[in-house]
Amino acid sequence: MLKAVIFDFDGIIVDTEPLHYRAFQEILEPLGLGYSWDEYVARYMGFDDRDAFVEAFAVAGRQLSPEALEQLIDRKARIFQEVIASGVTPYPGVVRLATELAGEVPVALCSGALPSDILPILSQFSLDKVFAVVVTASDVAASKPDPASYRLAVERLQAAFPTHGIAPSSCLAIEDTPAGIASANGAGVRVVAVTNSYPADRLLSASKVVDSLAGETFATLNALVSG
């Protein structure tokens, strides 16, 4: 039986990837490190800010000190806040589904974004009280596809709900990227993948691939774990 559901954030709750891309380019283009949207999708999507900056410098064969990296991360966070201040739109069905699921089982969020990127948007959609556990880039040293973030999400769910019998095999992740699927699967968590960011043929390692969460319910997700 389904005991918990873990949502990704970017590309599942909201379409923030173009906004992240815009913020990265505002910083990287003056440094001669800019890249196209297609390259962002192919190489950088799914990374947290830290790994995205490290990768951009590595691709160009440029050195990046720890101090400079922290400055870039801080600046990107400030730019992103300016970008989202005008408001963002949730994906169809996700607010309803997360709220419905929270009435049935514990619901968590597992994202490579920073808390400052996530929490204001959750508040916009009145989802800030829905997620019992939130894991962000600030909580783990390695970003997806490393399984550390999903392992931590499961551990925190187990600690918060010790009588629920939560195990990785009784959890379900909702993801939109190959890196996210690999992260969840690496932690022993099955995945429903949504084609918000990648075509279905890039998401086949998920247990189920859907075009939208609008048709999903507790019953349809429970069937994946109980079947």
Automatic annotation (TrEMBL):
UniProt keyword annotation of Metal-binding present: yes
Names of the cofactor(s): Mg(2+)
Domain of life the protein comes from: Bacteria
InterPro entries xref list: Beta-PGM-like (IPR051600), HAD-like_sf (IPR036412), HAD-SF_hydro_IA (IPR006439), HAD_2 (IPR041492), HAD_sf (IPR023214), PGP-like_dom2 (IPR023198)
Membrane-spanning ranges: none
UniProt keyword Metal-binding, yes or no: yes
MF terms (GO), sorted A to Z: catalytic activity; metal ion binding
Keywords: Magnesium, Metal-binding
Family of the protein in this entry: Belongs to the HAD-like hydrolase superfamily. CbbY/CbbZ/Gph/YieH family.
Protein name: Beta-phosphoglucomutase
Lineage start: Bacteria, Pseudomonadati, Thermodesulfobacteriota, Desulfuromonadia, Geobacterales
